[in-house]
TrEMBL record:
The keyword Ribosomal protein does not apply. Belongs to the NadC/ModD family. Pathway: Cofactor biosynthesis; NAD(+) biosynthesis; nicotinate D-ribonucleotide from quinolinate: step 1/1. It is an enzyme of class 2 (transferase). It comes from Arthrobacter oryzae. One of its GO terms (biological process) is NAD+ biosynthetic process. This is Nicotinate-nucleotide pyrophosphorylase [carboxylating]. Residues 45-130 form the Quinolinate phosphoribosyl transferase N-terminal domain. One of its GO terms (molecular function) is nicotinate-nucleotide diphosphorylase (carboxylating) activity.
Length: 320
């Protein structure tokens, strides 16, 4: 079954192949697309306006040049609908679904100039989102059978966070705090300023801070040594992040916390280390590389023009 752009309600939850990826608000997608199109064609696409007849139609296929996990089908469709509201877009693969090289992921039929105008913006976004979903799915597979949850970080492309974090969810991962406004995360620099290395002062400062928070606000603290764990736990925090710990220290840290808080591991996480990190018993593994260093997945848009007999290439000069 295919899903068309016309059937998606604004802000609706988008279906994924293996679970619930949450919502991708239409307003956020529209804002990103308008900004991108303004950047790419501030005064229109003079190439297509010169070469392609105004009434020409085109049918294009979004093809996978390599295997991966799809994310951004709705973004691709929205880009096409933004330049041609009458375009017909069929999404042949669902977000969150794995595909092989050579798979047709979507088709679009519409005004040829409009399809060409949207092409690069649509491809840039769906390629990046699918790369993130694919990389995330790889990490999720590596920790299968453990309780560890793979999450992203705030190391996202400015302006694209809502899309990139949705892509993480499409890959089976979860999201960390969305912004600095969502939760308290006291890191090493915060602790150095507040406590000066005094464990008792650290506990008191954190406990006082927690007392001033709303009861629904999550409180996480990053530590970089075993000696900080007990003073931080004594403050009643919700999550403790063990940053750049060795595997042995991660296991010892999990044992020391003993369920009194959620344990997050961060730092030195890659495809070669993530399984061993998960095996220490941590609850969360946060990976900045899910978003900050992906290489766009190789997807291509193959376009065929349908020009009516007698039409000519080139718009030619216009009066005025």
């Amino acid at each position: 079954m295919t899903a068309t752009a016309a059937t998606m309600a604004p802000g609706a939850a988008l279906p994924t192949a293996d679970g619930f990826a949450g919502t991708l608000p239409e307003s956020a997608v529209d804002a990103v697309l308008r900004m991108a199109l303004q950047e790419d064609a501030p005064y229109g696409d003079i190439t297509s306006q010169t070469l392609i007849p105004a009434g020409a139609r085109a049918t294009a296929v979004l093809n996978a040049r390599e295997p991966g996990v799809l994310s951004g089908g709705a973004v691709f469709a929205a880009a096409m609908k933004l330049t041609d509201p009458d375009a017909v877009v069929d999404l042949l693969v669902r977000d969150g679904e794995a595909f092989a090289a050579g798979t047709a992921l979507a088709t679009v039929t519409g005004n040829a100039r409009a399809v060409l105008l949207a092409e690069r913006v649509a491809l840039n976004l769906v390629q990046r989102m699918s790369a993130i979903a694919t990389k995330t799915a790889g990490f999720v597979a590596l920790v299968a059978g453990t309780k560890a949850r793979i999450t992203d970080t705030r190391k996202t492309t400015p302006g694209l966070r809502v899309l990139e974090r949705y892509a993480v969810r499409c890959g089976g991962g979860a999201n960390h705090r969305f912004s600095l406004s969502d939760a308290v995360l006291a890191k090493d620099n915060h602790l150095a300023v507040l406590s000066g290395g005094d464990p008792e002062k650290l506990t008191a400062v954190l406990r006082n801070a927690k007392a001033h928070l709303g009861h629904t606000t999550h409180f996480e603290v990053e530590v970089d040594s075993m000696a900080q764990i007990e003073p931080v736990l004594a403050a009643g925090v919700d999550t403790i992040m063990l940053d750049n710990f060795t595997l042995a220290d991660l296991a010892a840290g999990v044992a020391l916390v003993a369920g009194r808080a959620r344990v997050e591991a961060s730092g030195n996480v890659n495809a070669g280390t993530v399984a061993d990190i998960a095996a220490t018993g941590v609850d969360v593994i946060s990976i900045g590389g899910l978003t900050h260093s992906v290489i766009a997945l190789d997807l291509g848009l193959d376009i065929g023009l349908d020009m009516a007999p007698g039409t000519r290439s080139g718009a030619g000069p216009t009066a005025g």
